[in-house]
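Deliverable D4.2, example record:
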Amino acid sequence: MRLRIIGCTGSMSGPDSPASCYLLQAHGPDERTGRQRTWNLVLDMGPGSFGELWRYIEPTNIDAAIFSHCHADHMGDVISLHVYRRWGPGAYCDPMVLAGPACLPGRVRQIDGADEDETYSTEFIFKELEDAKSWSFGPFTVSAAQAWHSVPAFGVRISGPSGFSKDDTSGSRSAFFYTGDTDLCDSIVEGARGVDLLLSEAGFTEEDTVEGIHMDGTRAGTLAARAEVGRVILTHIQPWNNPEGARFQAKQVYSGNVELATTGMSVDF
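Output generated by the structure prediction step:
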């Protein structure tokens, strides 16, 4: 699999990055054609992310999108995707899956300013995430883990083919976990258990003492240590905070590799 950071700024777009958005890619067979191809899964789509995503793939090639929760900084640009798929070049495409909490269809209508009878059926198929329930599409297997946040939210565990070589026929698989927005909790630890790559939010600093919203670097590192993950990328850091501070905190409690998300970076695993 390949993870591409599209946007990584916490709570809003910033001067160096759109808000949260991540592209996960893997090679696998397409049952409709019988051929191998690249599958594209988007995780969250915060403000400013749709245009940045377009730098890497044509929006017509997005196979599915998963929304960890329905705060606007993680889903505001879904309206750009809607416009592209209803009236733009994506209008000929079959509807694509949008997965998220049960409130997702209503939140899309709110952001769009649409009437209650709007279903978006020409462009989207809504799928509700449920704690500990898994589903598969293409080469990916996806399961959700209940998060601890101020609204219904999930972390997402995804397994898929190891590496990103089209010629790899070994059949080996890797595991990935994205926390979305959450404070440290047992369900997120179990969801991330043993993954090769953890993409963890670190939206708070150690001065932020409110519980049940975000992690700071120390709690993100504690998550990585308790879940025994292979490596960590920290993301969702506020544009006015120093990312190196979060990284330093995480490394005090986690002995593995800790990196900082930056727009455009990619990791094959």
